[in-house]
Amino acid sequence: MGEITYRPLRSLIYVDCIREQYRHKLQHWLYYYHVPESIAKFEPWVTKYCFYNALPVPREGERFGTYRMQLTEHYWMVDPLSQESLVNSLNEYFPPEVMIWQGVIPETTDQQENLADGETARSSGGDNGCPPFIMAFLPIFWEEDLKGKGRSMIDGPNYRWQFLISYPEGVSKEEGDRWMMETVFPRFAAMPQVTRIMTSKVIKEINNCHMDRCVEIWFDGPDEWYQCAVEQMADLEKPVWAKQEQFPFVRPQYEFASLFLTDMPTSDNLKQYRGYLPMR
User: Fold this and answer.
1) What pTM does this model have?
2) DSSP strand E in the chain: where?
3) How far apart are CA 30 and CA 101, in angstroms?
4) Are 256 and 227 in contact, with CB atoms under 8 Å apart?
5) Is 43 left (phi over 0), alpha (psi -120 to 50) or beta?
6) Residue 93 phi/psi, 5° resolution?
7) For residue 121, pLDDT beyond 80
8) In what order do the strands lie in the sheet with 159-165?
9) For 155-167, how does the pLDDT look when each residue is reduced to its tens digit (9 = 90+)?
10) Contacts of 210 (CB under 8 A, 6+ apart)
């Protein structure tokens, strides 16, 4: 065993729900099983553990790889995937159905025959025809503040568009970042409907996340997002490595994943969770 190293990190888990038939089941698993097990496991080295419910998918949002369930956000004090953290007294209850409901493994009955522990389930996807499971680690603070630095709560509620992008195979991170920094971000920054832009590189060595960069762009609402991301980006010149005809030019959910969020978490779990309390 090595020495445990203090390393502040932020992580983002994108949770989809592929059918409305599954939403209540996925929510039940999250709040009844997953939250208390997670708190029991990592509360000593996590300072924040939140769920943000995803807002409804706006017009044409599907081609932006929009996730429909929630964002799970952690603030870590140590690397949670380091060798020192791998010995756990109890495994999580993590049946394969959970990954089926999220669309990470196929909807086939043979996938449901055996329970899988949490780490096995997390490693599923990506090579089975389904989008890979996304858990992206970032620096604890945003690295680039590109627009709206003076914004405060008095300026009103924000319609947050958060997305992760992976540059296609054969495109270096330097080339992809240059395109984002010199072409995409200035275009959005010039739009009056855009109130905030922040971005960070994904820390890939933690878990080999396939995504390269995380971005948040804020608007007043879904109509403003549509005016900017769809209408005003319609004539953006296609890069030579484009896989799609329209911005963002890469494969939805596989290479471009996004969520639409409010400012407030649905549940700040370390502070608010009091167990699964059904209403009657």
Assistant:
1) 0.93
2) 9-15, 46-53, 70-76, 134-138, 144-147, 159-165, 196-201, 213-219, 256-261, 267-268
3) 12
4) no
5) alpha
6) -80, 105
7) no
8) 144-147, 196-201, 213-219, 159-165, 256-261
9) 999 999 999 999 9
10) 126, 132, 166
